[in-house]
Amino acid sequence: MKLIRKISFPVMPIYYAISSLRNKLYDLGLKKSTSYNMPVICVGNLSVGGTGKTPMIEYLITLLKADYKVATLSRGYKRKTKGFQLANEFSTAESIGDEPFQFYNKFKQAVLVAVDSDRRNGIEMLQKQNNPEVILLDDAFQHRKVKAGFNILLTTYANPYFKDVVLPSGNLREPRAGAKRANIIVVTKCPKELAENEKNKIIELISPMAHQHVFFSSIGYANEVVSLETKIKIDDLSNFTLVTGIANASPLVHFLNDKNLNFEHLNFKDHHEFSQEDIAVLNKKACIVTTEKDFMRLKQYESLKAKLFYLPITTVIDNNMEFNTLIKTFANS
Known about the structure:
Helix content: 25-40%
Order of helices and strands: HHEHEEHHEHEEEHEEEEHEHEHEEH
Radius of gyration: 20 Å
Largest sheet: 9 strands, mixed
Shape: globular
């Protein structure tokens, strides 16, 4: 992979120029960007890979659902359907995508969950059919046909955007200057109890603009794993198989190792579609622990139900009162 990126280095200036020109055309109004007379909050990133968008969307749902009619709108990555889809009792991970399916399963009584690769059409359909009071856009920072009223940009502590370059040599979908569009920048997956002097160094490197706020978050792991029928304390687990199909499983692996648990790790690519051969391998395992996103894809297999568990996670935000106030102030606007 490193060799490919070195070889592709001459292509990087072309990608940089094209993505910069695209952004400039939107900034100047030469390409149309639609804004809305209702609160639309975008959660996204500059980088490819996992920055914690799903738990951030869930954090916002939990924060807002008691006071507003909330809808989430995602692309529905790798779904088998086309166009606008509103989640219902017949939805599956295949029909709406694993992450939206996760939102629906967790919050179906409280929020509307929709998918549409054309976010502008998705918003119009939600307004026409369901009239939500707040819309949360999942992974739409580069979807500039929609002008969200509030942008939350996520970047990981281990691989921050300000130390990266654009594709194909780096991981950035667009140049670093795109961060200027954010209202809030959250450094995610930080170590617990990150020192204030290190936070200050990171803020200095981010160099936020006057309108921008920087926050730090970490992953909060539950103390038990959950199946369709029962729960088990993490400390009571033994000799299990960890199955992950996410962008970066390292934080989860480190968490389980820190607990001195005995497990093997089957690590698949992000959004992996489990084949019959994969399921045959998993059928031979005594106990399987996975992520909630992977659980949404695997729970359909009857042979796995009795031994399949997921570990719930949450986003833990430093100075969360200030963060919450900024979000609710915008939602009230």
